[in-house]
Amino acid sequence: MNTSSPSFSSSAADRRLSALVRHLEGSSLNVLDSRSRSIAASPTSGSHGAGNSVFDHVVRAPEDPILGVTVAYNKDPSPVKLNLGVGAYRTEEGKPLVLNVVRRAEQMLVNDRSRVKEYLPIVGLSDFNKLSAKLILGADSPAIQENRVTTVQCLSGTGSLRVGAEFLARHYHQHTIYIPQPTWGNHPKVFGLAGLSVKTYRYYDPATRGLNFQGLLEDLGSAPSGAIVLLHACAHNPTGVDPTPHQWEQIRQLMRSKALLPFFDSAYQGFASGNLDTDAQSVRMFAKDGGECLVAQSYAKNMGLYGERVGALSIVCRTADVASRVESQLKLVIRPMYSNPPIHGASIVATILKDRSLFQEWTIELKAMADRIISMRQQLFDALRSRGTPGDWSHIIKQIGMFTFTGLNSKQVVFMTKEYHIYMTSDGRISMAGLSSRTVPHLADAIHAAVTRVA
Amino acid sequence: MFGRILASGAVGAARSMSTAWWRHVEPAPKDPILGVTEAFLADPSPNKVNVGVGAYRDDNGKPVVLECVREAERRIAGNLNMEYLPMGGSVNMVEETLKLAYGENSDLLKDKRVAAVQALSGTGACRLFADFQKRFSPDSQIYIPVPTWANHHNIWRDAHVPQRTFHYYHPQSRGLDFASMMDDIKNAPNGSFFLLHACAHNPTGVDPSEEQWREISHQFKVKGHFAFFDMAYQGFASGDPERDAKSIRIFLEDGHLIGCAQSYAKNMGLYGQRVGCLSVVCEDEKQAVAVKSQLQQLARPMYSNPPVHGALIVSTILGDPDLKKLWLKEVKGMADRIIGMRTALRENLEKLGSPLSWEHVTKQIGMFCYSGMTPEQVDRLTQEYHIYMTRNGRISMAGVTTGNVGYLANAIHEVTKSG
């Protein structure tokens, strides 16, 4: 099949970092030693003529904490090792998964000789954009029907967030964005580099391992009018803690009363509950109240298209005219960043979304992935209960999505790695996707030991 | 803006608030280059010709997918997984790509002195470098040739790097204004950053000669300037990738620590896949590791990691000797067709008895011909002849075919014959 398969790192660089994650690697900064600065004496390097580098002062950036986990995992020779840092879906056999619908769509694309690889428009593939908007907002969304939504294809969730943030930094009157505590580690960097200033609102309650709803309402309530608020549409990363529909409604009312601008990050639609519409409820609640909002969508997880970088940014506007002007300005953000988005992944998505039977098949595969995750949650919970592990572990089945915030502390995590070869981030977050029925008992043993033997 | 707290959760209550977030948003001007194709597509005329955007066309005016690309795609379809690439992209693809720019046996590569990451084609590579320049040489400016690809200005502006220009194109001769260019290089403060087109300058098609490149490199050494090469047409200009990289090799021989943006959009026809590479030559391996890590830190909040598909195509082709041979043949084929069209266009214009000199059409190199026509003449071409090009008079030779070269020559003659 792959006669000359390229070898690139197999580690899925887990994009979901907690703001509380501490680096696992010790020496993260590598200040240049002037003695180590040597210019090779070989003829072609022109050692006699070379100037000093203008980037001589550049220090090595800290290692990505998640990659550190996978690097350590890869080095471990133990046959029972388990990588629970990875934020990518794995099968029961621990393998990455390409969905059948994706394979089929790809084959269709490859076999279609009439297809070319020309540049997409700056805003991306038109079909993809329309279908993506429908997917998140609902096919019957009045905003869509009234042409009040502008959708641009972007590079997965990250790219959608960045383009949206750059647009806000240039055209929105308020340059502060409130992000939940904790959140994906890349969020503050995305918004910061775009020129927004980042503040936080209370979200996770370590005591209950649930939502700090009071704190959330207080913090959003005291935000300046017009401030931007980042909301995880479902399956909050890293905690897995989501507001209930009732709580979402209260959040919506509060935000609209203070003219706070919602910016949704939707990275797990369909993956959280197994149902695409259910997982979009929070977004749709806001979109249908007539107000404006931004939504960043990713197909990395729910279509397994991680490395293809497929996503979309939608901005729901007051009027069609505004939406059109907004779109033209989004193009000005995109063009000097990468000109136009990559065609392959978006073509796969569009092929699937526009074909009834492919779409159906996708929903079934999606539900299967979500169900497997939910089943792992249940199995782990049962295993801990049957071991009589001290503590309340119900959050494992209450939290939703790919990750569980176990509540284990960093000492316990280190213990689990050393004694049981379990790899996870030091904030106690585990990826349920990395578990299987076979490995749940081992993890349960490790947690039990950590909780009973390590303070 | 209403300050009223809503008493109830009635849907539509928000409508009564004047949350006119975007009322002040002006419609943005259309992109001058991509806007041309939009206009072309909207034109119903059967005679219309698109010599606007720089995407290759075959002699039937059709876009081309290279055979080597089709074969590579067949091999990678049904790939085991579509997992995230590392932030720096496909290591394999980057390695092969660096060989193209720096030479198969480059000591720099052997000594691991080149920091490199996969980037979103040429645009993405330039933008990453501009962001990096801003962060680590915050007081620097970028010197940009006049003219240049319009998006260069946008890129460095959005990276918040101040811009200056240097002389490049000589309108009277439709060639290089070498003397003024050298003056600008000498007069710039020591250690300035310069953007150079490695080959097939866009939009003029005017490149320095090898001798001129050597002089430029020497002057750069004297002044301690930083050279950033945008190489979007390697292989596409002369038909020979090694030859097209000559400017870079000259600088490397002289010991310059350059930066380089590479793109596979044109030379592999991978336009929409957005595959490219950004590299920065460092003093040693340790520095290269540091620089690469910082480039990744800039990519992460922009798109996290680059797209895998295009990179797989590139590494499949370049990693297989037979496919690589096929690619080189196909690239030469494209370049040869362009060169053939240059000759045909010039001959046609001369045969029509044009009072002007069209020597530059065959002297210039690469995809574009800077015709020397004025915006008004270009407008006439569009309005009267349905010929689409950018208003700076740039003709994309890739859009010229044996079928339309006569029509094109005639139209150009008509709008230019009165001087």
UniProtKB/TrEMBL annotation, chain A:
Coiled coil: none annotated. GO terms for biological process: amino acid metabolic process. The keyword Transferase applies. Residues 81-447 form the Aminotransferase class I/classII large domain. Pfam families: Aminotran_1_2. One of its GO terms (molecular function) is pyridoxal phosphate binding. It catalyses: L-aspartate + 2-oxoglutarate = oxaloacetate + L-glutamate. Belongs to the class-I pyridoxal-phosphate-dependent aminotransferase family. This is Aspartate aminotransferase. It comes from Sesamum alatum.
From TrEMBL, chain B:
One of its GO terms (biological process) is amino acid metabolic process. One of its GO terms (cellular component) is mitochondrion. It holds the Pfam family Aminotran_1_2. It is an enzyme of class 2 (transferase). It catalyses: L-aspartate + 2-oxoglutarate = oxaloacetate + L-glutamate. One of its GO terms (molecular function) is pyridoxal phosphate binding. Keywords: Aminotransferase, Pyridoxal phosphate, Transferase. SUPFAM superfamilies: PLP-dependent transferases (SSF53383). Transmembrane segments: none annotated. Its cofactor is pyridoxal 5'-phosphate. Its EC number is 2.6.1.1. PROSITE patterns: AA_TRANSFER_CLASS_1. Residues 47-412 form the Aminotransferase class I/classII large domain. InterPro entries: Aminotransferase_I/II_large (IPR004839), Asp_trans (IPR000796), NHTrfase_class1_PyrdxlP-BS (IPR004838), PyrdxlP-dep_Trfase (IPR015424), PyrdxlP-dep_Trfase_major (IPR015421), PyrdxlP-dep_Trfase_small (IPR015422). NCBIfam families: PRK09257.1 (NF006719). Belongs to the class-I pyridoxal-phosphate-dependent aminotransferase family. Homodimer. This is Aspartate aminotransferase. It comes from Sesamum alatum.
